């Protein structure tokens, strides 16, 4: 048939009005249509028939051309072939045959074209005009075509809620798939109504299901990563000695032991090779080695990154720092900036209860001062003795013991900006060997005011609001060197320094 059509296109016909074909399989129709379009590039396959020219077409036989009015359509129309002999054909039934044109009482049947436009285009329809020898045969043909359409074509609605969970790249892939598969889509309040060949619609459904499953898997994994991140934090130590958290995905993998000797990417995109037996990671490019550590948090307390892990029933842990560590060097340099005495030992104080209370007070002051100074946390010094140091590490600073050394700026706990001040024997009493003790402390100074010897609590910031008080007192408002706090949880003993 296609070869004949190809041959016809080379014949100089006066006009070619229509070629009507009835194919009972949609895939055959689609393939035929594609090849026919390439052969007859200037003739649209489903164009409406143009009006007949006043001049009759050239005769195909010596007989005169058929009339243009009630006569049957020209031979190229879907009418039955002309008789093979001059004699009239025998009737197919006792009744005389009806006209070969479509019966007026039977309207055309519309079916959607398999070659769908873009998803944003309106649905294009194909119109099939059925002719036959009787009304019954036409009705039977219509029924069969409808049944065939129902088996070959189907429609599926994808709800807005289903589509909203998909990633943008997934939606883009679905639209491209619909275009390439010849599927029609209509949008209705966020829903997609997709129509086309059943096999293509089913393939699209499978693709949507796979995307939804992948999305649910990602969400489940994300929830698991978040849950583990709240309970356990894996950290690595930079060359500057600072500890950093691993990204959530790498944290999850290490905790689940997914990467016993595997790899992970840090937040800078650097790839690291992990060795959990040695608790270290190696930069794949520079071969730099860094230490790893695991911090298991409590339900109401997250360990600071620079702390070591602690046993479940351990409340206080005093950790001697290695003189070669960056942490030791940082604390030592800060001390030596204002004091010429020699550091003998630095110990990190890890007290869960004290740190939890300190961080609660930190949040309180930050919320109260969010429009001004915030918590104004400072690293300050507090001279002490061995006996008092043990008490402070266990129970924290206690303002009730104020007055032992000074009360010039209020009856609270005193902290100095300079280590040299706290190193004075009055505040840091030497033992028999001449060694002294001092805390490097975190102090929440907040908004401060000038102190005085009778101050028990800071005064109100505004006389109209007596409950809104200053957070601390100082010796000098312009250049404070001494800070006094009146709430025990406003200071935390971070490091204990032994010096001489």
TrEMBL record:
UniProt protein name: Poly [ADP-ribose] polymerase
EC number: 2.4.2.-
Keywords noted in UniProt: Glycosyltransferase, NAD, Nucleus, Transferase
Pro residues bias (residue ranges): 47-101
CDD domains named among the record's database cross-references: TCCD_inducible_PARP_like
PARP catalytic domain ranges (all copies): 303-500
Cross-referenced Gene3D superfamilies: 3.30.720.50, 3.90.228.10
Similarity field: Belongs to the ARTD/PARP family.
Region span, Disordered: 43-101
Domain WWE: residue ranges: 220-294
One annotated GO biological process: protein poly-ADP-ribosylation
